[in-house]
Design brief:
alpha/beta, 10 helices, 41% helix
Length: 269
């Protein structure tokens, strides 16, 4: 158009009210190679993590890439997870759990079950501090009786201290005399949820879902030793590296250090 009318660049830009800087602008080609490499590495390590978790990990490694650019590459690599829609009736009287103001105010405990490749069933006993969502222990074995539960809790208390209360369901190991005697001895209040109301213990239920998605469903285990080894490695990552939305994108250890630095968090070192 400019050449057809014999106009200079200056006059053409003046007529169109366009800056000559904008006219001469040539976009620099973007090299997405480093982003692709980092995203694929993180996604291979934790395939259940969505964009937000991956982007927070990239930020924590000091990368200043714009989130829109990273998301474009993320979608181009087809890493975005499809979410299954859930049909649920709305809760008529929802009762949100209280967030404790201090660590060791309330622990949530629960059991999970799974199977090895050969079909042998095993259980896990999970202990969580509601204050900073820290996973205090995951005990793995084919059978975990009340005496074993008490032993695990004592081992945690050796470095963490005893809680004021514990929240749990009505499983046979948890309503036993053994656990009741232990609680009375150490001044721990046992708080049982209503039967069929797992949402009343939603902190540990949410943790269980994460543990199942990132560990139990991600691997085929042939021996209990493999479950324990992978679980121990994942616990370190969960407590020290994985940012949590509910903690302001801090890890459980970072949140505890910021809020209550006097409590030791050297369990995983």
């Amino acid at each position: 158009m400019r050449q057809e009318h014999g106009l200079s660049v200056r006059k053409s830009c003046k007529m169109l009210k366009l800056s000559r800087t904008v006219y001469n602008y040539q976009p620099m080609p973007l090299d997405d190679g480093p982003i692709i490499e980092m995203l694929t590495t993180l996604a291979d390590h934790q395939p259940r993590h969505g964009f937000r978790k991956l982007f927070q990990k990239i930020r924590r490694q000091g990368k200043g890439w714009n989130h829109k650019r990273v998301y474009r590459v993320y979608c181009a690599l087809k890493l975005n997870l499809r979410r299954k829609g859930k049909k649920r009736l709305p809760s008529r009287h929802p009762k949100p759990l209280m967030v404790p103001s201090t660590a060791n105010y309330c622990w949530s405990i629960d059991f999970m079950s799974d199977a090895l490749y050969g079909g042998q069933r095993f259980r896990t006993f999970n202990v969580l501090d509601d204050f900073n969502r820290e996973a205090l222990a995951i005990e793995v074995d084919t059978s975990i009786q009340a005496a074993r539960v008490v032993r695990v809790l004592d081992q945690v208390a050796m470095w963490r201290g005893y809680p004021i209360k514990m929240r749990m369901d009505n499983g046979p190991e948890l309503i036993s005399v053994t656990l009741a005697d232990w609680a009375e001895l150490h001044g721990v209040v046992l708080e049982f949820i209503q039967p069929g109301k797992p949402t009343q213990n939603s902190y540990v239920e949410r943790f269980n879902r994460t543990y199942r998605g990132e560990v139990l469903d991600q691997y085929i285990f042939s021996r209990l030793s493999e479950v324990r080894e992978i679980t121990d490695r994942w616990l370190i990552e969960y407590n020290e590296e994985r940012p949590h939305d509910s903690l302001g994108d801090l890890t459980p250890n970072e949140y505890l250090t910021m809020k209550q630095p006097e409590i030791s968090t050297n369990k995983w070192h």
